[in-house]
């Protein structure tokens, strides 16, 4: 049952990430904004989910569905890394380092905010 929960959650998270990427591609962004938005929303969601879990307790299958599955499928470290390599290879060092730093700092802040709101 645990594997099924991760599978379902991961699929739903991946579909949401794909939807955000498609929506962002309708705009002529010259940056990896879709990945950034998906990753930040995944951080906030994970903070909320885990904050709720730590305060109230949830069943293992619920945590696997939402935290491991959905948030794991919704966020994407591999795409984040690839996009940064592309930025660096194109000589756009400022945007690459802003993307890296902003993702780490804001991601942690969104996790923290989610934990505080839900906890």
Give an overview in words.
By secondary structure, this protein is mainly α. The protein has one domain. 86% of the residues lie in helices and 0% in strands. The chain contains five helices and no strands. It has helices at 2-25, 33-56, 60-74, 77-89, 93-118. Helix 1 (2-25) runs parallel beside helix 3 (60-74), helix 2 packs parallel to helix 5 and helix 4 (77-89) packs antiparallel against helix 5. The two termini are 28 Å apart. The mean pLDDT is 92.
Choose one word for the global shape: globular
Q: Specify the number of helices.
A: 5
| Helix/strand structural class | mainly alpha
Residue share in helix: over 70%
Mean pLDDT score, rounded?
92
Distance between the termini: 28 Å
Strand percentage: under 5%
Q: pLDDT under 50 segments (min length 5)?
A: none
Instruction: Say how many strands there are.
Output: 0
Q: How would a crystallographer describe the biggest sheet?
A: none
Order of SSEs:
HHHHH
Number of domains: 1
Radius of gyration: 15 Å
Blueprint of the fold:
Blueprint: H1 2-25, H2 33-56, H3 60-74, H4 77-89, H5 93-118
Helix pairs in contact: 1-2, 1-3, 2-3, 2-5, 4-5
């Amino acid at each position: 049952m645990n594997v099924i929960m991760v599978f379902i959650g991961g699929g739903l998270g991946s579909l949401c990430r794909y939807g955000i990427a498609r929506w962002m591609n309708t705009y002529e962004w010259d940056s990896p904004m879709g990945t950034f938005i998906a990753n930040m929303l995944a951080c906030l969601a994970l903070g909320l989910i885990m904050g709720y879990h730590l305060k109230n307790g949830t069943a293992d299958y619920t945590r696997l569905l939402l935290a491991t599955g959905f948030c794991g499928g919704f966020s994407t470290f591999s795409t984040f890394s690839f996009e940064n390599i592309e930025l660096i290879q194109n000589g756009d060092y400022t945007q690459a380092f802003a993307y890296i730093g902003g993702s780490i700092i804001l991601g942690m802040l969104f996790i923290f905010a989610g934990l505080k709101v839900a906890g």
